[in-house]
Write a structure and sequence with these properties.
289 residues; single chain; 3-stranded antiparallel β-sheet; rod-shaped; alpha+beta
């Protein structure tokens, strides 16, 4: 008999035991565990959703940004105080129109200019004790672009029309100074002083000292020398006084008159000698020693 007919024949045969029932599903402790895990998952989803909504509310998330941070067409906009715990990289940082831009730090603020190899070219450090700038050249200009101050390894240039030094001790130049004009403020005196060394003024075309509304004094401890190598020294004044010239001895035969003549020694020293009918300089040659 074929297999199909045999199977059909067995299925049509009456069974003395009755129909068998098979249970389909999860029952017992497995069913209770499944319901518990489903309930726990729903609770976690609700807690997560509630925490997400709370974070969005606290951080003030909106369509335009988060908190004080706003996203605009020109970039990011920060309102209020901002604190960055890590390095901030930006192409441009600017304040709102009409407001100032503040950088606050507990120690110092450092601004570095780097090249393509991340090597520092220019550095500005503002600290609690000093403001330091490192670079090849330092310039200060006006709004119109006029140079006011410049400094590099070779020279320091002051481009202002007037340089004012307000220190009580004046200005100290350890080395030489080159200037076409040294002038004091109106109604103020000008003093060029060297307390421990000599004071030398040189110019290829002459040195002019002019006091239009006052006196001019030149004081030194040892020697005051006026030297002209190729020209002459001219004293042009209505009155010339040499009050501290040494006096020669009076001639015994001459009258004690208050008329003197100026005598010059071979070494260039000047002295006074009482005038007589003739020159008395040869009598007082001891003054030249």
């Amino acid at each position: 008999m074929p297999q199909e007919q045999y199977t059909h024949h067995r299925s049509t045969m009456p069974s003395s035991e009755g129909p068998q029932v098979y249970k389909v599903g999860i029952y017992g402790w497995r069913k209770r565990c499944l319901y518990f895990f489903v309930l726990l998952l729903m609770i976690l989803i609700l807690v997560n959703l509630a925490m997400t909504i709370w974070i969005l509310k606290v951080m003030n998330f909106t369509i335009d940004g988060m908190g004080n941070l706003r996203i605009t067409d020109k970039g990011l906009k920060l309102e209020g105080d901002s604190e960055f715990l890590q390095p901030l990289y930006a192409k441009e940082i600017q304040s709102r129109p009409g407001n100032a831009l503040y950088f606050k730090s507990a120690r110092n603020v450092t601004v570095n200019i780097l090249n393509d190899q991340t090597k520092v070219l220019t550095q500005l450090i503002t600290g609690p004790k000093a403001v330091e700038a490192y670079g090849k050249k330092f310039e200060v200009k006006t709004v119109s672009g006029k140079l006011l101050f410049s400094a590099d390894n070779n020279e320091v240039v002051v481009g202002a029309e007037r340089l004012r030094v307000l220190g009580a001790e004046g200005t100290v130049f350890p080395k030489s100074i080159e200037t076409p004009n040294v002038r004091a403020d109106p109604f103020k005196e000008l003093r060029l002083e060297s307390p421990t060394r000599s004071l030398v003024m040189e110019a290829p075309k002459g040195v002019e000292i002019n006091a239009e509304a006052g006196n001019m004094e030149a004081t030194c401890r040892t020697e005051l020398r006026l030297e002209s190598k190729d020209g002459e020294i001219k004293l042009d004044a209505a009155k010339i006084q040499l009050p501290r010239l040494p006096h020669g001895s009076y001639t015994p035969t001459g009258t004690r008159q208050k008329v003197f003549e100026i005598c010059v020694c071979a070494n260039g020293r000047l002295f006074l000698s009482q005038a007589g009918t003739g020159s008395t300089c040869q009598i007082n040659t001891s003054v030249c020693l």
